[in-house]
Amino acid sequence: MARSKEQNERMRESRKEKIRNAALLQFVKQGLFATRIQDIAAEAGIAQGLLYHYYPSKEEIFVDLINEALDKTIAASYSVRDMEAGPGEKIRFALERLVDTIENSQTFLDTCRLITQATNSTAIPMEAQDLIREKRNIPYQVIEQIMAAGQKEGSVVAGDPKMLSIFFWTSINGLAIYYSTNNNRDVTLDYRVIASMFLTEN
Q: What does the alpha-carbon distance between residue 38 and residue 100 come to, in Å, rounded to a whole number?
């Protein structure tokens, strides 16, 4: 029995996700320049020719990964912003979820490393550079708005809301990089330690 159009599309998206996950591992381990298409195909467990059916180049996979990561972070930020809760509770919830993700998602850790590498490099596709310039600051702006609202209600400490937002995201990114690169994870993460930097009551 022939597959339906929807089934074919699901299969296509499943294979593309498998390729992206394999590419993420290789890019984090070797970098974009050193990673070869055959490395990605081998990691994904598919033929090199089949990979080309979905992505014509490793650069296109890289751009897809960057765009997907930025879009997910933006969507999560908007979701927190739109919660039916006060600003302080939004900050607490976001930190709790992010710290839990750091502890339990290797994909999240690898994605943080990829974004960090891409942000600090000019040797990446121009399309990826444009995406980073266009989208990277949006989550910072969302948290800045929440911090400012929290200061008005008294749940967030005094200070420049923009600087507090930078501290928020750099704390999360720093923890993710530490967990991603350190096999001896002898520190139990507690989101309340980070929250105490931002909230008047933790």
A: 34
Residues 77, 147, single domain; the answer is yes
Which residue's structure tokens are 């600090």? 120
Domain C-terminal end among 34, 56, 78 = 56
pTM over 0.85: yes
Note down the domain range covering 36.
1-56
Distances (CA, A) of 176 to 102, 142, 169, 171, 198: 6, 20, 11, 9, 19
* Domain identity same for 155 and 79: yes
Joined tokens for residue 134: 């266009």
Q: Give the CATH number of the domain where residue 185 resides.
A: 1.10.357.10
Q: Categorise residue 31: left if φ over 0, alpha if ψ from -120 to 50, beta otherwise.
A: left
| pLDDT tens, position by position, 10-58 | 888 889 999 999 999 999 999 999 999 999 999 999 999 999 999 999 9
DSSP 47: -
**If you write DSSP's letter for every residue of 140-201 in order, what string do you get?**
HHHHHHHHHHHHHHT-B-SS-HHHHHHHHHHHHHHHHHHHHH-S-------HHHHHTTTBS-
Per-residue tokens: 46: 């598919």
